[in-house]
Amino acid sequence: MDMKAALDPHNQYLSSWTINGDPCDGFFEGVACNEKGQVANISLQGKGLSGKLSPAIAGLRYLTGLYLHYNSLYGEIPREIASLTELSDLYLNVNNLSGEIPPELGSMAALQVLQLCYNQFTGSIPTQLGSLKNLSVLALQSNKLTGAIPASLGDLGFLMRLDLSFNHLFGSIPTKIADAPLLEVLDIRNNTLSGNMTSLHCQPTRYPETEPESLGLNFIPLEVSLGNTVESLKEKSFLIF
Fold first, then answer.
1. Fold of 1-97
2. CA 54, 106, 82 angle in degrees (round to 5)?
3. In whole angstroms, how far apart are CA 41 and each of 22, 46, 169, 190, 224?
4. If 0-12 CB within 10 Å is exposed, 13-18 middle and 19+ buried, where does residue 208 land?
5. Pairing of strands 185-187, 161-163
6. Are 152 and 175 in contact (CB under 8 A)?
7. Per-residue pLDDT tens for 19-34?
8. What is the pTM of this model?
């Protein structure tokens, strides 16, 4: 019950989570279990939660999906979350989370989607995220991240979408980013990155709240110039903003 107390400190939304209850009996709000009776999915997006994410989350060893977006959670991401070695989807976007992104997230080998956008994260992007070999979506937009874009992100062989827009990043785009073979969308708007960008245009669009992604962008192909790196990206038909 440590996790319940942290997420919902006033017991307004998770009253169905009881001490003597079985989380797999179908009555625990937002909880789903696998065929072995182990908690595998927690879906509490848009529930009005106003607490924190407890280190007790590490006890849910068989969790594959954690969906806590569209809430008012605050505080830091506990480093213990890296113990969830089977987690493939982590949605913490659109909250009030702060602090630095734990480098330990780079050890979560099963992670495919990492949504941390629309929070208050500070510090640099951990280079360790380049170790997430199964990652297809990395969304870090609309935070307060600083520093350079890690070249290690170019090692993500399954990465299809990389959104770093609306932060305080600086420097040039690492040439290695062009090595990501499946990358389709690279959004780097509203940072302090070097180079010249011309003919910029994008059309914002909002996904329905029932969709896992909270906010999206409808990208339109551009003519962009940011030196040799961008020339390599253009050859691979990447979309850059």
1. 3.80.10
2. 25
3. 14, 16, 33, 35, 41
4. exposed
5. parallel
6. no
7. 989 999 999 999 999 9
8. 0.84
Query: Could you state, in order of their start, the residue ranges of all structural domains in the chain?
Result: 1-97, 110-196
The edge-to-edge listing of strands for the beta sheet with 168-171 is: 146-147, 168-171, 192-193
**Number of other CB atoms surrounding residue 220 within 10 Å:** 11
Instruction: Specify the fold of 110-196.
Output: 3.80.10
74 token code pair: 């605050």
Please tell me whether residue 230 adopts helix, strand or coil conformation: helix
| Residues paired with 218 in a beta bridge | 203
Whole-angstrom distance between the N-terminal and C-terminal Cα of the chain? 44
pLDDT tens profile 42-99: 999 999 999 999 999 999 999 999 999 999 999 999 999 999 999 999 999 999 999 9
Contact assessment for residue 194 and residue 167, using Cβ atoms and an 8 Å cutoff: no
What is the C-alpha to C-alpha distance for residues 171 and 187, in angstroms, rounded to an integer? 15
